[in-house]
Amino acid sequence: MSEPVLEIPEGWEERAVDGWEWATLWEAVEEGDHGYSHERVQEAIDAGIDPRVILDDGLFPGFNLQGDRFSEQIIFIPEMLITARAMKAGLALIRPLLAANDEKPLGTFVMGTVLGDMHDIGQSIVTIMLENAGFNVINLGTDVHPDKFIETAAEEKADMIGFSALLSTTVYYQKVTIDEFEKAGHRDKVHILIGGAPTTQEWADECGADGWGRDAMEAVKLARRLITEQRGAWA
Amino acid sequence: MSDTVQLRIRDDDGQEQSITATRGETLLDAAHRSGVEITATCGMRGRCRSCRCKIIDGTMPPPTVADTVQLGHEEIRERFRLACQTRIVADTVIKPMPPKSESGHQLLGGHVETTSLDLVSGVEKIAITAKAPVSEHHQTSDIEEVFMAIGAPLKSRLVPGNLLQDLPAKLREQKGALTVTLFRGKIVDIEVGDTTGKSYGMAIDIGTTSIVGSLLDLETGEELAAVGMLNPQAPFGADLMSRIAYAQFKPKNLAQLRGKVLSGLNDLVRQAAEKADVSAEHIYKIVIVGNTCMHHILLGIDVSYLGLAPYAPAVRDGQTIAAADLPLKSAPRAHICTLPILAGFVGADALACVLSTRIYDSDTVRGLVDIGTNGEMVLASKGKLIACSAPAGPAFEGAQIRHGMRGAVGAIERVTISDDVACQTIGGDAAVGICGSGLIEACARMSDARVLNRMGSIKSTDDLPEAVAARIRKSDHGQEFVLVWKTQGGKDEDISLTQGDVRQLQLAKAAIFSGVMMLMKAMDVSAEDVDELLLCGGFGNYVDIESAVRIRLLPEMDPEKITYAGNAALMGAQMATLSEAEIERADALVGTIEHVALAARTDFQELFIDGMNFGEPGLQVLSQQDEAIAV
Q1: Largest CA distance in chain B
Q2: Which one, of A33, A26, A98, A13, lies nearest residue A63 by Cα?
Q3: What is the DSSP string of B262-326?
Q4: What was the pLDDT predicted at A178?
Q5: Which of B43, B237, B500 is the closest to A73 by Cβ?
Q6: What is the pLDDT of residues B569-628, one digit of tens each?
Q7: Distance CA B94, CA B97 (A)
Q8: Secondary structure class of B21 (helix, strand, coil)
Q9: Is residue B26 within 8 Å of B82, Cβ to Cβ?
Q10: CB of B378 within 8 A of CB of B387?
Q11: Within B152-287, where are the H helices?
Q12: H or E segment at B226?
């Protein structure tokens, strides 16, 4: 296992304006300095740098570095959260510009903790990570009834659904909810991802999910991969 | 191809038990179905190594992912597999070989101070001389003659049917010399002769991990025997949630768990009576406390919904059940009393702790914490009581920790770091693993030595002594810190603490820490305002208080104000056994304790995340530095 390193985007100098420097922003996101992140992104916008470039060259390197460290357990939830928040502070400025440039979100993701389960932290971390990665995330919170998932997925024409469960007594409802999507005739229209401490790849296979994320970072990687696979269209 | 295969299970003595298994079922399912117990601490999820088996003979099943993760390539080559993951494909001979560190256990008792108790237990023995009826003119009956001899009117004239069956002979055996035993004013026994000195009760605490009990003389309050055992349900999951999950929507599994605890209780009562050299027939009152899940399983109540929000118990009031109805065969004359339950995860054990610590009766702020897989805590101030539960998971019991083990001989329990690391084990034996209290102490000392930063990352710093720095290394399990080198320990490998272990501990201690902090917040007091914090229960009494404060398992308060309270739940049960007034008090208290549901509080997430950090003396912790962490 090798120590994750900062991956400097190739050719970033050509994409930035003359004399522009990203290193301080990479570090700010890594260290979770949301004030600086916000400030530096605003400066980049004012300098006329393309929002897509700000995102890819400015915000992602520090975020990805911490994400990899989180996956390797080198850093833990509190540090991942402050990094995610610093990323979000910068992203908030860019998002409207991306939309104006006709950039679409990677996909629409409906997220929530299953019925009977009140655990919030895990799914809120996954939510912020997915948002940072470019997904439009609708977060339904905790103790979500299968009907609510189905209803929201249909309304939002969701591409992907995530079910979190943190208790060995509630993972059962991951399966129940997937079965309900099947019964409603919507199973083929969405990718379903599951996660949470008691879950495993075996359980994901058994309950009929399309994928399992060991942690938030893996869930994001999985979502990015699966989104490229076409599912059936919503009516 | 036949659908059944032969599975032979070899024990330590080389004896084999042959069972017929269905092709494709797991080794563990087949074994359990046939009554062979293989412990699955993680609840059969492939998350621990307790169900490790060696495949002695037969087709070697391919290793699963969980096998590889838990056992490693070497053990897989040596024909080890996890019984919960391995599916039987052909005739096989296996030998269960749990890692040494998964067996053995500490039990904690305690005896309550009786001087302040009102020793009215509800059990009354009266020696009488009754006359057998003599006149056919004046019709009466044997039992009416007994009533007559008692004199004072009884609360009920109902007599258990089996007492009537041999009453005619008893009445005439010693010229009417009888002893009548009453429980709450009703006849529960009629014996020949005078047995008035023999009036016993039992207090039992059914914990998820262990069951402890004590046999008491109801007249003097004296403890005559202390007994304990591992909870026989343990093979079906170490923690509460895996126990509930096992029985959830599966009445057969619930019945199985119930059968286990009932037979355990039968053994425990017999054992206690033998140890005290008394007849179990003279045990008349048994007070049982335990968490809500243990309570429900004992009574055979469906626990399916206990595992789902809002985690509502089926009943909260204390129950009284005749031994025959439970059934508890070993104490046939007893009544079993349960104390009331506060909430799904704040059970009768918590109420018993409140009774024995008397925190309800205090002018200052006092609290109690039961540190366990399901932590329970209560805070009291001037008659106001609030309680909550926090799921810490099994890390404190050494489960799901790489070299974790229960607090048994050979477990590292004390750690010091100066020029090098020194570890002390329970019993002084060569180290074979680390128990929960050792884990806490190791992290505290590693934090002091700056091997751990305040976020819990294992890091090498420049000024570390050479011998300490040499213990930090990369492994297949990520960064780790070697506590005991292979050459100095009692295991065929180095005993280390991995980064993943530290993360497990961070989650566990954050649960307890944030639970206590939340109660303080709800009571609107700070850690300095708390006059006394009592550590209850098995685990709390082995924790080094200074280390627990150091790693922020317990609030940052003066360690002098934190005290060990022994097995406060058992002591509360003892009080309720000896004194009916304490049962009445428990019934009254339960209605006044406010329950704080942590998950429903929006400010809980912040406290929990902050609670994961180890902190550093003189340094502000994350959330105080940076308030708006919520996402």
Answers
A1: 105
A2: A26
A3: HHHHHHHHHHHHHHHT--GGGEEEEEEEE-HHHHHHHTT---GGGGSTT---S--S--EEEGGGT
A4: 98
A5: B500
A6: 999 999 999 999 999 999 999 999 999 999 878 889 889 999 999 976 444 344 433 444
A7: 9
A8: strand
A9: no
A10: yes
A11: 161-165, 167-173, 240-247, 251-276
A12: strand B223-230
- End-to-end alpha-carbon separation of chain A, Å? 46
**In this predicted complex, what is the ipTM?**
0.89
Query: Residues A97-119: pLDDT tens digits?
Result: 999 999 999 999 999 999 999 99
The b-or-e profile of A25-64 (16+ CB within 10 A means b, else e) is bbebbbebbbebbbbbbeebbeeebbbebbbebbbbbbbb
State the Cα–Cα distance between residues B11 and B18, nearest whole angstrom.
Answer: 11
Is the N-terminal amide bond of B310 cis, ω within 30° of 0? yes
pLDDT at B1 over 60: no
| Half-sphere CA count of B434, side-chain side, radius 13 A | 29
Task: Tell me the per-residue pLDDT of A1-27, one tens digit each, with 9 for 90 and over.
Answer: 578 999 999 999 999 998 999 999 999
Cβ-contact B577, B286 below 8 angstroms: yes
Provide the pLDDT confidence category of residue B483 given band limits of 50, 70 and 90.
Answer: very high
Which residue in the block uniquely carries the two structure tokens 């916000």?
Answer: A38
CB contact under 8 A, B309 and A124: no
| Angle between helix B436-448 and helix B499-523 axes, rounded to 10 deg | 90
CA distances from B244 to A29, A61, B303, B580 (A): 42, 44, 6, 32
Q: Report which residue type is found at B147.
A: F
- CA–CA gap between residue A175 and residue A154 (Å, rounded): 19
Cβ contacts (< 8 Å) between B615 and chain A: which residues? Answer: none
Chain B residues lying within 8 Å of A78, measured CB to CB: 455, 609-610, 612-613, 622, 629
**Contact criterion met (CB < 8 Å) for A202 and B612:** no
- Whether B176 shows a pLDDT value over 70: the answer reads yes
Give the sign of the dihedral formed by CA B517, CA B522, CA B528, CA B529.
negative
How deeply is B544 buried, as exposed, middle or buried, from its count of CB atoms within 10 A (0-12, 13-18, 19+)?
middle
A-chain residues near B631 (CB < 8 A):
81, 84-85, 88, 124-125, 127-128
Interface test with chain B among A3, A38, A76, A205, by most B beta carbons within 10 Å: A76
3-state class (DSSP) for residue B177: strand
Smallest CA-to-CA distance from B593 within B240, B350, B397, B307 is with B350
Residue in A168, A170, A202 to test binding to B, most B beta-carbons within 10 Å: A168
CB atoms under 10 Å from CB of B171, counted, come to 23
pLDDT tens sequence across B505-535? 999 999 999 999 999 999 999 999 999 999 9
